[in-house]
Every structure is written in C-alpha cells, then in structure tokens.
Design a protein that fits this description.
InterPro entries: EmrE-like, Small_drug/metabolite_transptr, Small_multidrug_res. Belongs to the drug/metabolite transporter (DMT) superfamily. Small multidrug resistance (SMR) (TC 2.A.7.1) family. Gdx/SugE subfamily. Keywords: Cell membrane, Membrane, Transmembrane, Transmembrane helix, Transport. This protein has 105 residues and is mostly helical. The protein has one domain. The protein is flat.
Length: 105
C-alpha cells in the first residue's frame, strides 16, 4: 500500500506544481486553492508512505515523479521547449527512479 500512496503523492506533486504556475504567483484564486489542497494531500500521502518505506527511497521517488511529471506537463500543456538535453535529463531521472525502486527490495 505504501507504494500506491507514494505514486499518488508524486502525481499530486505534478498537480500542485502545474496549478502553482497557473496561479500567477497566487494571484488567481481557484488555481491557488487547488495548489494548496493538492500540496497538503501530496505531503500527507508521502508521510503515509514513509511509515514503511525508507526516507531516501520515498523522497527520491516522490520528487522524481514530480520532476518528470512536471517536465511532461510543461511540454504538453504549457508548450515548453523539448530538446535532446532535456530528454536525456528526463531519461536519467526515470532510470534513477527505477534503480531506487529496485534497491528498496
């Protein structure tokens, strides 16, 4: 169950980061509220996952899901540039997440 909590926490990290961008520095009300609610939920799920998962593993995977997810959302939703260097960086992040998962066994 901890891995499910961690996956959901990482996905919510993508949500709050995306809505933080849309909040225009917390000026727009609805995106600001979504940011705060998703942030609290993400932290709560991360805390639940950390009950049984090692700190280093849980935190690394949580931030990795958020980083790769935000990278994808940035490209798909916000039209951010995509180039070889960014793709290599995202690939290395994913490889690191897989290795952390394997190391946790």
């Amino acid at each position: 169950m901890s891995w499910i909590y961690l996956l959901l926490a990482g996905l919510l990290e993508v949500v709050w980061a995306s809505f933080m961008k849309q909040s225009a520095g917390f000026i727009r009300l609805v995106p600001s509220i979504i940011t705060v609610v998703a942030l609290i939920a993400s932290f709560a799920l991360l805390a639940l996952a950390m009950r049984t998962l090692p700190l280093g593993t849980a935190y690394t995977i949580w931030t990795g899901i958020g980083a790769v997810g935000a990278f994808i959302v940035g490209i798909v939703i916000f039209g951010e540039p995509i180039n070889a260097t960014r793709l290599i960086a995202a690939t290395l992040l994913i490889a690191g997440l897989v290795l952390m998962k394997l190391a946790a066994k």
